[in-house]
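sorry for the late reply, my laptop died twice this morning and i had to redo everyting from scratch. anyway the thing you sent over, i finally got around to it. pasting the sequence first so we're on the same page, its 122 residues, then the predicted structure underneath. double check i copied it right bc i was rushing
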Amino acid sequence: MTLKRITLQLARNPGLPAGDPQQGYLIVAPLTDTGQLDAEAWPAQRKACRVYRFHPDPAEKADGWLSHKGQNWFFRYDEEAEGDDEPVFRLAAHTFREGEYVTISHPGGDAQTYKVTDVSPV
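ok and here's the structure:
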């Protein structure tokens, strides 16, 4: 399975009616033909499955790995300052196609909605 680069940008959320394209995530992961995360392909490509959180505030930027356990997916960060693992609500059920939405819960904060703005081969 070919790895994909998935771009998520902050969508409309409370307090941000227009969203913010400068906040979001880049995810490198294998996808199925239907655009869902490929749990079967993930173990063989685990080291290449990355997550990058981008934000205008340098303290909010982070990089790490896409982690999978059971039916749950997490964004796992390697440095304590980058925060706890971020659970992604029903990530396995999401379809990663442009225009779709994903909800991500930030440690110590509220869940926010992100829009898939690009899916391309790595």
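The radius of gyration is 13 Å.
thats about all i looked at so far, will dig more tmrw
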